[in-house]
Each structure stands twice: as C-alpha cells, then as structure tokens.
Write a structure and sequence with these properties.
Structural class: alpha+beta
Number of domains: 1
Distance between the termini: 36 Å
Oligomer: single chain
Number of strands: 4
Length: about 100
C-alpha cells in the first residue's frame, strides 16, 4: 500500500475520537539534536489496550529514515489497527524525544 494512502486511513481512524476499547495508541520518537526537538521520527511505539484498566501491549518499529514516511511501517500500523478491530485509535502529536539512558 502506498504510504500516503496508509497515512490517510490511519488519520481517518484517529479523527473519529474515543469510541471505547480495544484502543491502539501510536507515538513517534526521535533523537534530540543539540538541544532541539527532533524533526525526524526514527521509531514508532504501538500500544494496544484490550479493555479499560488492562496493561497495554507495546511493540516498537524502527526506521532508518523517518518512520512517518516509511511505507512498510505505515502499512503495518494500519494492519495492526484493522486486525485488532480497534474502536479507538490515538496518535500522540509531534515527535517525543528518545531517552538514551
């Protein structure tokens, strides 16, 4: 699937808002450069929560470039959302900073 098509389908799910569980959350991470916030996401963490109060299952995908523009990663995220039959999809705005510790 083309990266733009996958991103649009994910964005459509995110725009629906909260509709209960199961819930899939997407958070992008990048490395801080010289004290500046990252402009490229090298990782994405997918969290799956089956029901309220349950511990989320997490999976990390790493990209050599920007994970937001990686066709394989975006297509995989869409497949995870569809196969989980997620009623809610949340995407954390922006790029979080990776902890190197």
């Amino acid at each position: 699937m083309h990266v733009d098509k996958a991103k649009k389908r994910i964005a459509k799910q995110v725009k629906k808002g909260f509709h209960g569980y199961p819930l899939v959350s997407l958070e992008y991470f990048g490395k801080e450069h010289f004290g500046k916030t990252p402009d490229s996401a090298t990782q994405v963490v997918v969290s799956f929560t089956e029901e309220e109060g349950a511990d989320p299952q997490k999976q990390t995908f790493v990209s050599g470039g920007d994970a937001r523009e990686d066709e394989t990663i975006q297509s995989t995220l869409l497949k995870i959302i569809e196969r989980a039959d997620a009623k809610t999809v949340i995407e954390i705005d922006g790029i979080s900073t990776l902890n190197e510790n």
